[in-house]
């Protein structure tokens, strides 16, 4: 069994607590992404698993064993760093087999593993090339090769693709996922890139200021973020967050009152100070005079397949609408009608920012308003 359990794990540097009481489990063979803004503690958490940092409080279990005091070399991990950490004066082959020679594996086994890895990452033919003569993308693939030949049950990656351009990143992401589906190691992948998180992770752990905000599948994080922070961190353009008040069945955005559907008021009765969360694709622009809100177009961008429009509501709130397919052309300054797709609207408590509609196991704990 090669799972990882964080049991109340905290980490401080001096008086500063940078990781705060992490409690979650990564299953054997699972691909989990740590996602969050710079400084939220992603790398530190990964380094706690690798054993490069000591845990200040709590316990970390790997494969059922508490590893708080276990040296990194004993943890059976393979790691890939942003900087690649290759030996520039050695050729590709030497870089890849270096760790295996130290492990004193047999010559045949070393050759087989290295050849398989080179083939998997389309590096056959590069064996004799000096690392310093390779491009960034090639170096990154050598670093991946060097990690996968170890065949370790734990695979840790710290922003491994951040030095690559957009196109190479996409290829590298696909390579990584493919390798993982073959190796089925327990994988942790650190990134601050939400697209990478959505495409690589089977689950995403979102961190903020050293605390875990949510750990869930990409779909769940996108559809049902636990709070306004998670909501705003995933999606591009980001989810619209609109300050509003619910009063007796109406949503007040500034002075404009919009009647709420019964199934929402059945759950959110009385008064609530909220942040309305609505993704750009759930805001429709219409010429229909009966639209729930009126706004004016600030600008619109058309990328062929997608139209993205920034709109001002009557109270000055700026929101984004985005939709695919043919649309009528909207001009800057034009007045338009705005319609929310209510079934996809979220409500966050204004003070705590907590999602008032987080569903548990597919069910909305406040009722079935979303179904
Ligand atoms: N050796 C250290 N001594 C003191 N503080 C540290 C040390 N390493 C990290 N920190 C602090 O811990 C916090 C978390 O840092 P960490 O590098 O884990 O964040 P991160 O989410 O990986 O950020 P980034 O995406 O920028 O790498 C930061 O406030 C950082 O300044």
TrEMBL record:
Annotated keywords: ATP-binding, Cell membrane, Membrane, Nucleotide-binding, Sugar transport, Translocase, Transport
SUPFAM superfamilies: MOP-like, P-loop containing nucleoside triphosphate hydrolases
Pfam families, alphabetized: ABC_tran (PF00005), OB_MalK (PF17912)
GO molecular function terms noted in the UniProt entry: ABC-type transporter activity; ATP binding; ATP hydrolysis activity
InterPro entries given in the database record: AAA+_ATPase (IPR003593), ABC_transporter-like_ATP-bd (IPR003439), ABC_transporter-like_CS (IPR017871), ABC_transpr_MalK/UgpC-like (IPR047641), Mo/tungstate-bd_C_term_dom (IPR008995), NA-bd_OB-fold (IPR012340), OB_MalK-like (IPR040582), P-loop_NTPase (IPR027417)
Cellular component, GO, one term: ATP-binding cassette (ABC) transporter complex, substrate-binding subunit-containing
Domain ABC transporter: 4-234
Protein name per Swiss-Prot or TrEMBL: Multiple sugar transport system ATP-binding protein
């Amino acid at each position: 069994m090669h799972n990882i359990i964080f049991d109340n794990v905290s980490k401080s540097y001096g008086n500063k607590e940078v990781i705060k009481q992490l409690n979650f489990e990564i299953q054997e063979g699972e691909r989990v992404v740590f996602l969050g803004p710079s400084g939220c503690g992603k790398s530190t958490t990964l380094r706690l698993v690798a054993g490069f940092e000591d845990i200040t409080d709590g316990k970390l279990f790997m494969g059922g064993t508490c590893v708080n005091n276990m040296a990194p070399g004993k943890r059976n991990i393979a790691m890939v760093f942003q900087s690649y950490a290759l030996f520039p004066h050695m050729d590709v082959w030497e870089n890849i087999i270096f760790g295996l020679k130290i492990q004193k594996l047999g010559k045949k086994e070393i050759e087989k593993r290295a050849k398989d890895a080179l083939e998997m990452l389309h590096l056959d033919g590069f064996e004799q090339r000096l690392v310093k003569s390779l491009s960034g993308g090639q170096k990154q693939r050598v670093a991946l090769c060097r990690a996968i030949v170890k065949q370790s049950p734990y695979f840790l990656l710290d922003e491994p693709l951040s030095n690559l351009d957009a196109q190479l990143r996409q290829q590298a992401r696909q390579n990584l996922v493919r390798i993982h589906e073959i190796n089925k190691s327990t994988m942790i992948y650190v990134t601050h890139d939400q697209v990478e998180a959505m495409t690589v992770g089977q689950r995403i752990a979102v961190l903020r200021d050293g605390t875990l905000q949510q750990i869930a599948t990409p779909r769940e994080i996108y559809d049902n973020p636990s709070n306004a922070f998670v909501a705003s961190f995933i999606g591009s353009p980001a989810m619209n967050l609109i300050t509003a008040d619910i009063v007796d069945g109406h949503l007040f955005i500034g002075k404009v009152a919009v009647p709420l559907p019964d199934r929402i008021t059945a759950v959110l009765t009385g008064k609530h100070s909220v942040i309305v969360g609505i993704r750009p694709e759930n805001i429709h622009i219409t010429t229909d005079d009966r639209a729930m809100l009126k706004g004016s177009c600030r600008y619109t961008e058309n990328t062929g397949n997608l139209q993205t429009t920034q709109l001002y509501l009557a109270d000055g709130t700026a929101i984004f609408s985005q939709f695919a397919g043919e649309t009528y052309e909207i001009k800057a300054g034009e007045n338009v009608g705005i319609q929310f797709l209510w079934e996809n609207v979220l409500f966050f408590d204004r003070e705590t920012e907590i999602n008032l509609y987080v569903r548990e196991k597919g069910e909305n704990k406040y009722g079935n308003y979303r179904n």
